[in-house]
Write a sequence for this structure.
């Protein structure tokens, strides 16, 4: 098939046209794109590039985060017959500039917030489709990329993002096809079973600028008609939540993320009352069948969702302990070995017939052998054509053999076992080889160790292993010494660690796929050790969360002033907690965090993290279609006539909603719980009235759902009945004033995705002022508005306060007026506090 190229996958875009291709999170919303829509966007990008003079063979830099538009742009570049130059979003502008010059880039397509630099080629905004739709020139269906062959360059991947000189790996269409075609043939055997699980969904945590991320998000899904789900969070609890919400089939991740996910699950089930549940079952499950293991751990399977069955790991070697952990729970663990120079894959294990601790067998069509020192050598069509250097293609190996720089061994069944990087091997004075990966495994098993790296430390012309420890909490000399002693007891004498230090920062410097940057760590470790410091370093440095506190306007306290009171608004607390969770990869209790008053309180929460779900119940059942129809019947039979008879409101400004069809964020002043929702429902057009979710004070809703037990039973039952009635009839959900905001905001986003408008009273409390003047809007409304990204409709209720003051239930004719303002929206990036103040001014001025 000499003329086949990667665009053969577009045949499947038509085959699966109606199936979802991409799901991504934007703020609190989920956006979905079908294969037909993705194909249309890709063709739009191809036309836009052609209109800007991009011809076959021209290089286009693609610089941004994982998104549906990134995928569309990638395919658009290939349709144009051009060459993609993917660039990690975290790459420094200087590195981007040098890579741009080296590759001879003609156009840059970048995320809107990424910087431009002097002398750069022209650019387009990847996340602003107006730039694309405004492209000049006639639209045409001609795709020069259709004429690409296996030898046509598809992309140039730059493999360094630090101060090193850029080195572009040149990958052709044939390089990728050599890995895809065996997989395509292997899938046919299982395609008859796939229909029972269709549609498959892969949730990915790997950047698309990484070749493994591309393989699993760009090329494999179209073979199966699968959807790819982009998850922006690295919080283990958030990942589990997304897997279940999206009904994901598999999770695509680098080993570090799976290690963190394992630690998060262990932390959750080690909370009081559960520590004796997890460990014994893991011990007993090893010899059980796949289905029996899944049943033993059904509580965890329920957390992930019953469609989820596999972890797909790549980009680095997966720890044997992590692989065993998930296998024993009844999950398949698919692990591959490869590198950028081999278009992602060299070997791949079978999800159901694999040997633990190996990376599978060499892919068909690829030759491999071990060098005299155990280095893995490979040869075949998937091996890169070479390296790009200032327009010159340099060879990637001698005689077609690519030296991977990795050490390995092959077992009797032909499975490849990864031993480590050749350049990282430490040779002792006795001539014995120490593999740092073996020592790191021993260190990572020790309690209190979050991560570790082992680097060579030269002394007197000889080298020995030096352990750099990333401790969970206690980084004192005694704690680190205990870790080293325990690890050494499991190592051979020549492997034992004599030098070590506790890393003083929050985390190791890492690549975009989570690998520690060993040169930077080694340089910093040498600087510390040469200064005579070997332990207790974190205590001599600022605490890991000091920078976060400073970011939120708090003075970083010294170790002796941890009782300093935090001065944070409710919104700042939410954002600080989210930042801490992302930094420490834990989920904190919002209730406990809301009660934290000092830095010491925050420290205690971080030292004893536990994964706790929100305490409030979010009634998704109230939005089921049968319940919605029942709600409308009850509303028009009872609530609507009562509102018209008792309030007979006058509606002003309904014409402002004439041209709006989609969901809205409705905001209003709040006078009374009994009347406000009914008046707003009457004022809204039917298309919004019939699909409206209303935020109600979380503390009030919870008090109705679970009234105090010391109340008289009849009163308790009355409150509980009221909870079910108000939830069913008015579709309310809790929006707490003190904790639980994030889960409420997520629920609001889900409601909007289901086509519901959302009603929020931004004052947060019922108006009990002496003169009826509105209370200041809570800044949380700004955060919600910014992340929902839907039109905001300001409304104001006039006349209700007078009725409330006089304790009347029947309004005078013309007394109550409901005013509806024109829908507004805000520029992305507008501060939430500013949005809240402007919305307050709009409601006041109606």
């Amino acid at each position: 098939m000499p003329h086949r190229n990667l665009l053969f996958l577009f045949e499947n875009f038509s085959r699966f046209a109606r199936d979802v291709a991409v799901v991504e999170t934007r703020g609190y919303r989920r956006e979905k794109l079908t294969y037909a829509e993705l194909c249309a966007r890709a063709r739009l990008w191809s036309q836009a590039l052609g209109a800007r003079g991009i011809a076959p063979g021209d290089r286009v830099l693609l610089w941004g985060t994982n998104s549906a538009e990134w995928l569309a742009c990638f395919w658009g570049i290939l349709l144009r017959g051009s060459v993609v130059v993917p660039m990690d979003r975290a790459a420094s502008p200087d590195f981007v500039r040098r890579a741009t010059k080296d590759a001879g880039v003609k156009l840059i397509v970048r995320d809107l917030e990424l910087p431009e630099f002097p002398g750069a080629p022209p650019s387009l905004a990847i996340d602003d489709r107006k730039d694309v739709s405004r492209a000049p020139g006639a639209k045409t269906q001609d795709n020069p990329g259709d004429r690409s062959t296996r030898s046509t360059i598809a992309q140039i991947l730059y493999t360094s993002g630090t101060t090193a000189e850029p080195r572009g790996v040149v990958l052709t269409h044939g390089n990728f096809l050599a890995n895809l075609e065996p997989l395509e043939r292997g899938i046919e055997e299982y395609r008859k079973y796939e229909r029972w699980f269709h549609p498959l969904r892969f949730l990915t945590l790997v950047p698309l600028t990484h070749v493994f991320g591309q393989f699993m998000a760009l090329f494999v899904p179209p073979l199966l008609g699968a959807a790819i789900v982009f998850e922006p969070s690295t919080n283990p609890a958030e990942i589990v939540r997304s897997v279940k919400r999206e009904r994901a089939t598999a999770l695509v991740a680098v080993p570090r993320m799976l290690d963190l996910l394992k630690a998060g699950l262990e932390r959750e089930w080690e909370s009081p009352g559960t520590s004796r549940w997890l460990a014994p079952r893991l011990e007993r499950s090893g010899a059980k069948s796949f289905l029996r293991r899944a049943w033993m751990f059904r509580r965890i399977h329920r957390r992930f969702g019953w469609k989820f069955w596999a972890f797909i790991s790549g980009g680095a070697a997966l720890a044997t302990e992590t692989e065993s952990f998930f296998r024993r729970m009844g999950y398949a663990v698919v692990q591959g070995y490869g590198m950028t120079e081999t278009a992602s894959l060299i070997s791949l294990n079978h999800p159901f017939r694999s040997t633990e601790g190996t990376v599978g067998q060499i892919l068909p069509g690829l030759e491999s052998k071990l060098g005299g020192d155990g280095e893995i050598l490979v040869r075949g069509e998937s091996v890169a054509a070479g390296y790009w250097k200032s327009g010159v293609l340099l060879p990637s190996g001698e005689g077609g053999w690519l030296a991977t720089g990795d050490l390995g061994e092959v077992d009797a069944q032909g499975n490849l076992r990864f031993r480590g990087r050749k350049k990282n091997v430490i040779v002792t004075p006795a001539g014995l080889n120490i593999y740092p990966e073996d020592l790191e495994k021993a260190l990572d098993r020790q309690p209190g160790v979050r991560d570790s790296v082992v680097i060579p430390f030269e002394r007197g012309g000889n080298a020995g292993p030096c352990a750099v420890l990333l401790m969970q909490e206690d980084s004192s000399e005694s704690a680190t010494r205990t870790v080293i002693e325990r690890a050494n007891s499991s190592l051979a004498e020549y492997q034992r660690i004599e030098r070590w230090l506790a890393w003083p920062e929050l985390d190791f410097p890492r690549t975009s796929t989570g690998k520690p940057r060993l040169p930077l760590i080694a340089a910093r470790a040498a600087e510390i050790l040469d200064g005579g410091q070997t332990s207790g370093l974190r205590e001599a440095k600022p605490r890991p969360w000091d920078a976060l506190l400073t970011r939120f306007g708090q003075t970083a306290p010294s170790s002796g002033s941890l009782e300093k009171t935090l001065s944070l608004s409710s919104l700042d607390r939410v954002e600080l907690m989210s930042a801490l969770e992302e930094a420490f990869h834990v989920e904190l209790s919002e209730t406990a965090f809301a009660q934290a008053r000092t830095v010491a309180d925050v420290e205690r929460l971080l030292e004893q993290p536990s994964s706790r779900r929100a305490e409030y119940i979010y009634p998704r059942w109230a939005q089921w279609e049968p319940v919605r129809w029942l709600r409308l019947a009850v509303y028009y039979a009872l609530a609507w006539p009562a509102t018209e008879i008792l309030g007979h409101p006058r509606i002003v400004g309904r014409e402002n909603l004439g041209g709006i069809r989609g969901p809205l964020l409705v905001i209003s002043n709040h006078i009374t719980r009994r009347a406000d929702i009914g008046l707003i429902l009457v004022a809204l057009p039917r298309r919004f009235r019939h699909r409206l979710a209303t935020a109600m004070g979380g503390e009030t809703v919870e008090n109705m759902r679970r009234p105090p037990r010391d109340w008289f039973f009849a009163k308790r039952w009355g409150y509980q009945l009221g909870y079910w009635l108000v939830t069913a009839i008015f579709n309310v959900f809790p929006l707490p004033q003190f904790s639980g905001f994030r889960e409420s905001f997520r629920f609001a986003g889900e409601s909007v995705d289901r086509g519901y408008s959302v009603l929020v009273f931004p004052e947060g409390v019922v108006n009990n002022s002496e003169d009826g003047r509105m209370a200041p809007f809570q800044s949380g409304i700004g955060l919600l508005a910014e992340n929902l990204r839907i039109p905001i409709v300001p409304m104001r209720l006039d006349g209700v306060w007078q009725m409330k003051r006089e304790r009347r239930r029947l309004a005078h004719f013309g007394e109550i007026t409901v005013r509806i303002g024109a829908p507004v929206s805000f520029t992305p990036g507008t501060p939430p506090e500013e949005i809240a103040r402007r919305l307050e001014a709009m409601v006041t001025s109606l």
